[in-house]
């Protein structure tokens, strides 16, 4: 029997609750399909940080590197200053393991209420391929008055970036500066990932989300390199370049008309959350942080400490994230069975059997059990 070692961070708030339901489903399909999952648990999150002051240890990163994938419940607590956990755990994991793709599918499921009405027989079925290590999320910049220097440093798998910005102002005013940067290899690899995904989905078109008319240096370069890769390596695909503001307008009117969307880091974060809302909410929004080494899978809804322990959490996003993880390690059949079970549960459920998020009365564990019962 093949065994996969899975690094597991249950995290904070509802993280352990929704993860427990995903674990139940994973235990069933792994038994049915002849493989096993060994969970390698780590304590990192708000609770551990508040108790010890530790975010991540080097020894833990070394141990994680030997795992097949990572599953994250959720990280966050209002007792911790915003940005500490995001930068010290989530971004640290993404950058350390060079998880250069943030993959966020958006699918409208049966009986899940949507904010807009879709034509009969149509559904939302698209995916954001978000570049995950560059752009304006590199965290480099600073602030000062009149004449000041801003040290700029970012270490990535592709390069080690070092510079100093000398700022001279003719007025004694305070100014803040944030630097965004993208590289040719960074653009090329996310373009190839998006194109391969479009081929796998049987699609002929890929959309590049950009804004080169207003930000020509970064996004003009993005447009140029993406067009080169598609023309040279994927002649059977058509590339559509769409400004992010126009895309948001079109998504709000006709979200079912889109497939694979390649986005730079900043725009990908915004567009994927918009799509999550259009497709039914964060309770059905799964995500993967994918690289050539350890990849991490998580629901994008956060830790929701206000409902932790009440049973109100919706575990579907965690269950779908688990299916994404299985697909990543090569267990495609088991992953498809989980996705089918989620769809079957939602299609069959009467209102009281729906998650509380969708107006029903089913608890977190009830929802997990009902999905589990439909695994075939």
UniProtKB/TrEMBL annotation:
SUPFAM superfamilies: Isocitrate/Isopropylmalate dehydrogenase-like. Pfam families: Iso_dh. InterPro entries: ICDH/IPMDH, IsoCit/isopropylmalate_DH_CS, IsoPropMal-DH-like_dom. It comes from the Bacteria. Signal peptide: none annotated. Residues 5-371 form the Isopropylmalate dehydrogenase-like domain. Its cofactor is Mn(2+); Mg(2+). Keywords: Manganese, Metal-binding, NAD, Oxidoreductase. GO terms for molecular function: magnesium ion binding; NAD binding; oxidoreductase activity, acting on the CH-OH group of donors, NAD or NADP as acceptor. PANTHER family: D-MALATE DEHYDROGENASE [DECARBOXYLATING] (PTHR43275). This is 3-isopropylmalate dehydrogenase.
